[in-house]
Amino acid sequence: MDRALLADFLRARREALQPEDVGLPRGQRRRTGGLRREEVAALAGMSADYYSRIEQQRGPAPSERMLVALAQALRLDESERDHLFVLGGIPAPRRVLRDDYIGPTMLRIVAGLSDVPAIVLSRLGEALLQTRPAVALLGDYTQYSGLSRYLVYRWFTGDRQVRGLYPVEDHPIRGRVFAAEIRDAYTADPTGRAGEIVAALLEVSSEFANIWRLHEVGVTHHHDLKRYLHPELGNWSCTPRCCWIRSSITRSWCSQPCPVPRATASFGF
Questions:
Q1: I need a surface site. Which of 12, 102, 207, 268 has the fewest CB within 10 A?
Q2: The three-state (H, E, C) secondary structure of 169-226, written as one string
């Protein structure tokens, strides 16, 4: 435990937080721009004397329960919470990634791409959001349920919609990309949903099993020229533009496969 750094960090976060941020009235006699020590203590469910001693580098080391309460009271994000735990000399709680969450930054990005094909995918390859042009061009990727929600599962189980989007000669690289992406998620959490997807594919797809045995990582096709097949547009190529958003609760990316052929005007883009 580093008492000096812990005290400095708590003081800095307290002074940066405004009363309005936590639902407290500012009042007319407030001399400080941030929260008072007793306000933080009340929000954390501890005595003002106990909290004051922490900021004054006195008293016993705070317990894990106290650090959790302080993190909540000071509205710390998960990175700040982890830092607080390190300063308090306690291992930070394990983070749990969500696979169905679209953060506000990504939502703003997609809102600005409403007139072009764009799709938001989770770290497992589940389509979380598509623009209308993307649905018209690629099909509705959000309509599936069960394991079929994941592109990697549909690819290796022979889904005609996703496999038919690419020329047959490009299928080997696409399969390697999908396998490498699910391996990344599997390595991070082998007992979670990624593990379920991998186990299911190893049972039903010899193609997946053969690629999986290669242990390939970092295989990517996101920044290379892609060739697409479309039942009405025919063959066309483009270099997608991808935006990755990585946070403590989710990892998502937005792929904008454009420019698209002029014939797409007939699809109401």
A1: 268
A2: HHHHHHHHHHHHHHHHHHHHCCCCHHHHHHHHHHHHCHHHHHHHCCCCCCCCCCCCCE
